[in-house]
């Protein structure tokens, strides 16, 4: 699957996965780690480009693959056939240049089997850890309503979550 460590952050929509990752990634970068990121979206059609831009217009004209590049970054948009299934995590991991990364973080893909931290808010009453053996820890904003042997991390202390991740990388 991967040459380097992969760690997912999973939860139901609106729980705070992206908010937590926005705090964790700069802390990992400050430690010198090169981070790859894969984010799942439930939106069937989404754009990273904007109407009116040349690349958007070229894609709308029928380009099946549209690569936009500059000195600072490049992005590839690939149009998927409507009949195809949603790509699985392994297909997407193959798109990353893992030789230039130390860690791959994944937001979503909760139904796939790989090491994950569940972002859990007991007030929302949607625990995943009871049903998913690949969850290795829980990041929560309050004490859990049910007991678990998994490590429980305070989602309001991202530096502790980074320390947990660092332990896993060693």
UniProtKB/TrEMBL annotation:
Pfam families: MobB. It comes from the Bacteria. Residues 6-141 form the Molybdopterin-guanine dinucleotide biosynthesis protein B (MobB) domain. InterPro entries: MGD_biosynthesis_adapter (IPR052539), MobB_dom (IPR004435), P-loop_NTPase (IPR027417). GO terms for biological process: Mo-molybdopterin cofactor biosynthetic process. GO terms for molecular function: GTP binding. This is Molybdopterin-guanine dinucleotide biosynthesis protein B.
């Amino acid at each position: 699957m991967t040459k380097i460590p992969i760690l997912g952050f999973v939860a139901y929509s609106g729980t705070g996965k992206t908010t937590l990752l926005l705090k964790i990634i700069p802390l990992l970068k400050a430690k010198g780690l090169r981070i790859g990121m894969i984010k799942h979206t439930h939106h069937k059609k989404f754009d990273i480009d904007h109407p009116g831009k040349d690349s958007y217009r070229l894609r709308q004209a029928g380009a099946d693959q549209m690569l936009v590049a500059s000195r600072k970054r490049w992005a590839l948009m690939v149009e998927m056939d409507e009949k195809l299934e949603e790509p699985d995590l392994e297909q997407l991991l193959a798109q990353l240049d893992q030789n230039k990364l130390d860690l791959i973080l994944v937001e979503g893909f909760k139904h796939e089997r790989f090491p994950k931290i569940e972002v859990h808010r007991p007030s929302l009453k949607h625990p995943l850890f009871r049903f998913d053996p690949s969850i290795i820890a829980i990041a929560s904003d309050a004490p859990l309503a049910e007991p678990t042997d998994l490590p429980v991390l305070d989602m309001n202390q991202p530096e502790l979550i980074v320390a947990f991740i660092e332990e896993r990388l060693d």
